[in-house]
Amino acid sequence: MNDIVAARIAAAKWRAEQEKRRRAELAAARRAGLARRHAAKLRRLAEAADNLSFAASGA
């Protein structure tokens, strides 16, 4: 009986560790994606600022 309980506890710990690892991997991917999107946004804003025309006619 104690062997069964110990096996269940070990399995639960293993599952919890796997879930923790999966969440950490997803969080890292999320951070990387956010950084890429932010960099792309800054590039777009910089390009838009370079393309501005200060002519009085707005052309």
Describe this structure in words.
This protein is mainly α and 59 residues long. It has one helix spanning 2-50. The protein has one domain (1-49). It is built from one helix and no strands. The longest helix has 49 residues, at 2-50. The protein is rod-shaped, with a radius of gyration of 26 Å.
Summarize the model shown.
This protein has one domain (1-49). Helix content is 83%, strand content 0%. It is built from one helix and no strands.
Could you list some keywords that capture this structure?
rod-shaped; 59 residues; mainly alpha; single chain
Task: Evaluate the radius of gyration.
Answer: 26 Å
Shape: rod-shaped
Count of separate structural domains: 1
Count of runs of 4 or more consecutive helical residues: 1
How much helix is in the residues?
Answer: over 70%
- Parts with pLDDT < 50 across at least 5 consecutive residues: none
Percent of sequence in beta strands: under 5%
Mean pLDDT value: 90
Q: Helix and strand string, N-terminal first?
A: H
Cα-to-Cα separation, first versus last residue: 84 Å
Topology (SSEs and partners):
Layout: H1 2-50
